[in-house]
Design a protein that fits this description.
- The complex is a heterodimer of chains A (138) and B (87).
- Chain A is an alpha+beta fold.
- Chain A has a single domain, classed as Glutaredoxin (3-Layer(aba) Sandwich), CATH 3.40.30.10.
- Chain A is built from 5 helices and 4 strands; from the N terminus they run αβααβαββα.
- In chain A, the strands form 2 sheets. Chain A has a two-stranded parallel ribbon. Chain A has a two-stranded antiparallel sheet with strand order 3-4.
- Chain B is of the alpha+beta class and 87 residues long.
- Chain B is built from 2 helices and 3 strands; from the N terminus they run ααβββ.
- A two-stranded antiparallel ribbon of chain B has the order 1-2.
- In chain B, a hairpin with a 6-residue loop joins β1 and β2.
- Classes of the chains: A alpha+beta (138), B alpha+beta (87).
- Chains A and B meet through α1, β1, α3, β2 and α4 of A and α2, β1 and β3 of B.
Chain lengths: 138, 87
């Protein structure tokens, strides 16, 4: 969310909610149980949209938001699962292609691209929000 | 004991040690299973690269009804595209 706050006046943002990474009926993580984030993998558009809305409400997530369809078209097109960042320029070309999360998911790289593009380093903001995909905001 | 029995024993021992080491590193045997069963098959680096045209996928708005294309959000300023899920 910090990245969004720092650059929302210069760049557009879009978060795309994709297939769950750790649903309770697949590979559920203990951390999700501890945080009370327990969802089965959605099997309908309604279920997927409902989880996306839960996420937004819990974190008061300010970024523009979209949902991938049940065929996972966006996920497959961008090889996005479980988390990933791209930057697309005004001509529709990919100018930054982040690594696959969680190990190669580095929002700082996207920040560096924006800093270079705009030749400015905003005063970093802080945020208490913590969770996927709010990490993108770091 | 025939050679193939020793081979099988050694192979099983190596696999067991590997699974044990992964369990230690990942937090438990259940996490290793989850990683192998669910994460590994879905991890794809993909063929997109810097300079490629961004795939113009169709997306769903939060009302669950409205659809739009990614190109609708491209053109005025750079677009930071963030993929993720809740869990």
């Amino acid at each position: 969310m910090n990245l969004y706050n720092d650059y929302k006046d210069r760049a557009d943002f879009l978060t795309v909610y994709i297939r769950e990474a750790h649903p309770l009926d697949e590979w559920q993580m203990k951390s999700n149980v501890d945080q009370g984030v327990c969802y089965a993998q959605p099997h309908s558009t309604e279920q997927r949209v409902a989880i996306a809305n839960d996420f937004i409400q819990r974190f008061h997530f300010p970024l523009p938001f979209a949902v991938d369809d049940m065929h996972d078209i966006a996920d497959h097109a961008y090889s996005a699962w479980p988390e990933r960042i791209y930057i697309i320029d005004e001509q529709g070309k990919i100018v930054y292609r982040g690594g696959i999360g969680p190990f190669n998911y580095h929002p700082a790289e996207a920040r560096a691209w924006l800093e270079k593009r705009f030749n400015v380093t905003p005063t970093p903001t802080t945020s208490a929000a913590n969770g996927h995909p709010t990490n993108a905001a770091n | 004991m025939r050679w193939w029995k020793w081979t099988a024993i050694i192979l099983i021992a190596v696999l067991a040690c590997g699974y044990g080491a992964l369990s230690y590193m990942m937090g438990g045997p259940r996490d290793v299973y989850g990683f192998l069963r669910y994460a590994l098959p879905q991890w794809r680096d993909g063929k997109l690269k810097v300079g490629d045209t961004a795939p113009n996928v169709r997306l769903l708005a939060l009302d669950g009804q409205t659809t739009f294309h990614l190109s609708d959000r491209i053109g005025q300023r750079p677009l930071v595209l963030v993929f993720g899920s809740y869990t």
